[in-house]
TrEMBL record:
UniProt cross-references to Gene3D superfamilies, sorted A to Z: DnaJ domain, Heat shock protein DnaJ, cysteine-rich domain, Urease metallochaperone UreE, N-terminal domain
ZnF (CR-type) ranges: 172-250
Binding site for Zn(2+) 2: 202, 205, 224, 227
Domain CR-type: 172-250
Repeat positions for CXXCXGXG motif: 185-192, 202-209, 224-231, 238-245
Family label: Belongs to the DnaJ family.
Binding site for Zn(2+) 1: 185, 188, 238, 241
Domain notes: The J domain is necessary and sufficient to stimulate DnaK ATPase activity. Zinc center 1 plays an important role in the autonomous, DnaK-independent chaperone activity of DnaJ. Zinc center 2 is essential for interaction with DnaK and for DnaJ activity.
Designated name of the protein: Chaperone protein DnaJ
UniProt cofactor note: Binds 2 Zn(2+) ions per monomer.
Protein's cellular compartments: Cytoplasm
Keywords associated with the record: Chaperone, Cytoplasm, DNA replication, Metal-binding, Repeat, Stress response, Zinc, Zinc-finger
Domain J: 11-76
Length: 402
């Protein structure tokens, strides 16, 4: 059954609990919240939660794609708005979407419209001969070319999340993710046919996926009803996937996190998304990376910032101090008479850049005052303070109007 036909029976906005004019961010937030609550790993053995998880995932796959969402909204608007009148008894009035999954046949309305099967709109065939093929008329709206072969439907893209430590994100790592989603059936390897058999070329359309018919001076093409436009038939379907070539299962994926990944960055894994029907290409998997804060480092672009505690004597007399980096310690020279709060730059010890090279390590010195001194140190400090005053040093000279 064509995806657009199924859309008439589903309210994706209701599934996600958002308004029909919700923004992309609102849709994403709603999906992430529900996905965490309904994930099979969080609800083991709960069939109802698993089914809801599938509906929420499908809703997100459509509404998060701008083109698919537009197509979905137009499809629902067309039918819900009553542009196609129903009632096999000849009465007018719109028919509600989702009320008859087997298709709708309309009669002559008040304006004398001709009878046609709404199934023709979706290429299912079986409509009255005088109705014309509405699949050709609306082929552009439903993103389906009226002529030519029908391609198997590519699987939907999926999205998941992972959280990394600051250093793992900066240096790169490999994580294992557990993903429950539609995946190629392991019994038939995605073909949909029972092991030992294989799909056969459809004899009705000779594998083209479409059939043509003439109506007066016009020729029409429509998806083959015998193979649903796939170009092949399965006489003996796989018992585990019922011929779809897809089953929902939990799989483990090893994801290589590149060096220098940032918080909120999305990593695309081609072909690791939802499996396509009957061996069609799989969608992509997008992994959203969250990065925890670090007790030592903060990041600004590809530079790393660190605050270095130092003594007053180290600032005045100068010193070489050991400072941590992402891959070990480095000695940083503090020049004599360095002011508190000064930032020293260590080249090339920041985060590795994608273009090559690395950012810098920015070390800000912060004087640390002892909480207690013994008598000898206190006496020496008094002598220093006196010598400081005698030298004419005035730390507040010109400050505050003085």
């Amino acid at each position: 059954m064509a995806p657009q036909r199924e859309w008439l029976e589903q309210d994706f906005y209701k599934d996600l609990g958002v308004a029909s004019d919700a923004s992309a961010d609102e849709i994403k937030k709603a999906y992430r919240k529900l996905a965490r609550e309904l994930h099979p790993d969080a609800n083991p053995g709960d069939a109802a939660a698993e089914e809801r998880f599938k509906r929420v995932s499908e809703a997100h796959s459509v509404l998060s794609d701008t083109a698919k969402r537009k197509e979905y909204d137009e499809t629902r608007s067309m039918f819900a708005g009553g542009r196609f009148r129903g009632g096999g008894n000849g009465a007018g009035g719109g028919f509600p979407y989702g009320s008859s999954p087997g298709g709708y046949t309309t009669g002559r309305g008040p304006a004398g419209g001709q009878q046609f099967d709404v199934g023709d709109l979706f290429g299912n065939g079986g409509g009255a001969a005088d109705a014309g093929n509405f699949g050709d008329l609306f082929g552009g709206l439903f993103n389906r070319a009226p002529r030519g072969g029908s391609r198997p439907k590519r699987g939907n893209d999926l999205e998941t999340e992972t959280t990394l430590g600051f250093r793992d994100a900066a240096l790169g790592t490999t994580v294992s993710l557990s993903l429950t989603s539609p995946a190629p059936c392991t019994t038939c390897h995605g073909s949909g046919a029972k092991p030992g058999t294989s799909p056969k070329v459809c004899s009705t359309c000779n594998g083209a996926g479409v059939v043509s018919r003439n109506q007066g001076a016009f020729g029409f093409s429509e998806p083959c009803a015998d193979c649903q436009g796939t170009g092949s038939r399965i006489d003996d379907p796989c018992p585990d996937c019922s011929g779809n070539g897809v089953t929902v299962r939990t799989r483990t994926i090893n994801v290589r996190i590149p060096v220098g990944v940032e918080d909120g960055q999305r990593i695309r894994l081609a072909g690791q998304g939802e499996a396509g029907l009957r061996g069609a290409p799989s969608g992509d998997l997008y992994v959203v990376v969250h990065v925890r804060t670090d007790s030592v480092f903060t990041r600004v672009g590809n530079d790393l910032k660190v605050e270095l505690p130092v003594s007053f004597g180290e600032l005045v007399l100068g010193a070489t101090v050991s400072v941590p980096t992402l891959d070990g310690n480095v000695g940083v020279k503090i020049p004599p008479n360095t002011s508190d709060g000064r930032t020293l730059r260590v080249r090339g010890r920041g985060v590795t850049k994608r273009s090559g090279g690395s950012g810098d390590l920015l070390v800000t010195v912060k004087v640390s005052v002892p909480s207690k001194l013994d008598e000898t140190a206190t006496e020496k400090l008094r002598e220093y303070a006196e010598a400081e005053r005698a030298s004419g040093f005035a730390p507040r000279a010109g400050w505050g109007g003085a």
